[in-house]
Amino acid sequence: MGVSAAGSSGGSPDVLVVGGGLVGLAVAWRAAARGLRVGVVDPAPGGGAARVAAGMLAAVTEVKYGEEALLALNLESQRRYPGFVAELVEAAGEDVGYRECGTLAVALDADDRAELREVYAHQRRLGLPVSWLTGREARRLEPMLAASVRGALLAEGDHQVDGRRLCAALLTACGRLGVDVVRGSARRLLRAGGSPGGRAGGAAGGRVVGVRLDDGTELTAGQVVLAAGSHSALLEGVPEEVLPPVRPVKGQVLRLRMPSGAGAPGAFLGRTVRAVVRGVHLYLVPRLNGELVVGATEEEMGYDTTVTAGGVYELLRDAHELVPGITELPLVETSAGLRPGSPDNAPVLGPSGLDGLALATGHGRNGVLLTPVTADCLAEYLVSGRLPEVAAPFTARRFRRSGAPSAAGAAPAGPALREVVA
Ligand code: GLY
């Protein structure tokens, strides 16, 4: 039997968000704030990759060659962060651990230094606000750095936020706006005219009308947003051509405890410190509450979230090279999360090509950073049917081969997507 997601207020909600991780909750909150009735479905709301993530807001220090479009989106979201956080803290009455602390990217030896100088030159060419420091200058800022550090670049605009507290605050803020959060696993997309119990994909039906859960419950809604992170490609009933090309990319992360908070005089570390060690991105993110997050591996292991001895060993070994004193700190937590990776490392936003289904997934290494711009753009799209210009390069259209047939029953990919891009 079909039930509405917004059960308490009666009737179907305007929007059902599949996925109650950071992105899904932020979309729900922003859409509800625009006056839509919103439901969220997730087996563990507030869980997901953001619970594991370090919460670096690293538009500048994550920049890669050839990813200028993604850089523009990352910078835009970084620009929106202070306002987003202020509104959320006001709405939820909870702090989210946003810290404007800057980031120091460090070179450990002469080869690293040569490579980091290239990165620095690239960043300067792009007009990004970075400055070069000698090893001595870097150690003056962060005295716990290894004596071998040969140079560093300082990105004073790359900050941090606590993903766990962000999720908790979003759950509160959603609750205050009447968002109905349903604990359950969405198994299958439902479409008007589809045969009950029909096979995944294929020609079953027209406009999207909701989802069926694992336990058979059907949740109906005016529109569905697929924001299920690394699980976004697993929803049955989505035609193959429409399914977002998202895969899980495992990241193992450690949490240690510093003797005092990052803001205290003589703190163990005062700002985010990162390096590329043996080709692996290593970062240490110190929080005001004394937590030190060390990450992260990058592994193509499917849906495996096992914390391995090798993963922990490599992170500690590399972190010890960067900050030798780290081995004195208590290790309080190990965890592994799954980034929703996409073929070009950029998110998939807005129209799916299927009437009634929108996408907010594929954020890869930048999910926490991209949350504000994703939520704003999706809310606008859900309200007006038009996707803001800043998100236009990130629709699913970029993955469609020209001349490929559109999904059976799906709106034709080209025109449908063009119409909704403002
Ligand atoms: N944002 C850093 C990571 O994904 O490891």
Automatic annotation (TrEMBL):
Name of the protein: glycine oxidase
EC annotation from Swiss-Prot or TrEMBL: 1.4.3.19
GO BP, sorted A to Z: thiamine biosynthetic process; thiamine diphosphate biosynthetic process
Residues in FAD dependent oxidoreductase domain copies: 14-380
Coiled coil stretches, renumbered: none
Highest taxon of source: Bacteria
Species lineage: Bacteria, Bacillati, Actinomycetota, Actinomycetes, Kitasatosporales
InterPro entries named in the record: FAD-dep_OxRdtase (IPR006076), FAD/NAD-bd_sf (IPR036188), Gly_oxidase_ThiO (IPR012727)
Membrane-spanning intervals of the chain: none
Pfam family, one: DAO
GO MF term set: flavin adenine dinucleotide binding; glycine oxidase activity
Enzyme category, top tier: oxidoreductase
Catalytic activity: glycine + O2 + H2O = glyoxylate + H2O2 + NH4(+)
Comp. bias intervals (Low complexity): 403-416
Region entry Disordered, spans: 403-422
GO CC term, one of those recorded: cytoplasm
Keyword terms: Oxidoreductase, Thiamine biosynthesis
Origin species: Allostreptomyces psammosilenae
Pathway involvement of the protein, from the record: Cofactor biosynthesis; thiamine diphosphate biosynthesis
